[in-house]
Amino acid sequence: SKFRDGLEKTRKGFVEKVADLMIRRKKIDEEFYEELEEILIGADVGVNTVMDLIDDLRAEVKKQRIEDASELQPILSQKLMELLRGDDDNAIRMNPDGITVVLFVGVNGVGKTTTIGKLAHRFKQEGKKVILAAGDTFRAGAIEQLEVWGERAGVEVIKQHAGSDPAAVMYDAVQAAKQRQADVLICDTAGRLQNKTNLMEELNKIFRVIQREIPGAPHEVLMVLDATTGQNALNQAKLFGEKSGVTGLVLTKLDGTAKGGIVVAIRQELNLPVKFVGLGEKMEDLQPFDSEQFVHALFA
Ligand code: GDP
User: Fold this and answer.
1) Ranges under pLDDT 50 in the chain
2) Which one of 146, 155, 230, 237 counts the least CB within 10 Å of its CB?
3) φ, ψ at 13 (rounded to 5°)
4) Tell me, what's the pLDDT at 194?
5) Which atom of ligand 1 lies nearest, measured to the CA of 116?
6) Which residues make up the binding site for GTP (predicted)?
7) Which residues are annotated as a binding site for GTP?
8) Which pLDDT score, from 0 to 100, does residue 88 have?
């Protein structure tokens, strides 16, 4: 499956290490727990979550009188699944009577443009009419890059010249979406880290324009995070997410890291659903997040 291929590195760098440990040590003693703790923290599961996990395992070992460490694997995968599950909510909230607006936020380089292209393709495959708004007028090349993805996905991109007011681009894009009777409008925004206050003002202005033109919009504000940056991604989400009305997360480049445990940390520490994960650079490599499939792909 897509998940299995995309999670190869995490399986090798994390799951196989756990399996190894369980077979090698056999005995469940303090050293075993310490090593397990190290592996979990090394996979970016997050220190607090790891402590809780280990406590849970200790309790199970006691309760079920388990003596052989290899018997712990199904219990560990079950616990991870419980931590990940929460309320799996990967559906995009659609506007029942009109254009659905999905706004993307995230710092440069995390994979925002790529994800927009992939999502446009997904919607298109579902038979929906999609329009993209080139709202990152700040980063050199951002507009052109979005156009490349628009062409790939076969959807129209609404743009102005570099340096223009992103809110004006959004206004144009909403008008175009109305005229063409589009189903979905996907909006890119600037992801520069410097000038954070201005970026917030810019986002607020974008919000106001979209809300005024389409009541109830934006229907989703998706924050894109790069899984390969581990705990950094988590901190970004905490800093940036609270203020920008984020409704869901996209975790990219999971295929590029052995530290897929970051998904667990994110689920535990942020009260936001993971809507999609990126498992490669191609158009098809965007998967709706499903905790059960995810854990199965790792442990099965
Ligand atoms: P942006 O600056 O946030 O718009 O980032 P881009 O969309 O330009 O992506 C930055 C780089 O990450 C590009 O080289 C993409 O091909 C790559 N990328 C994006 N998503 C994924 C993913 O899920 N997996 C992998 N392996 N690479 C990705």
Assistant:
1) none
2) 230
3) -85, -15
4) 61
5) 7
6) 106-113, 188-192, 252-255
7) 106-113, 188-192, 252-255
8) 74
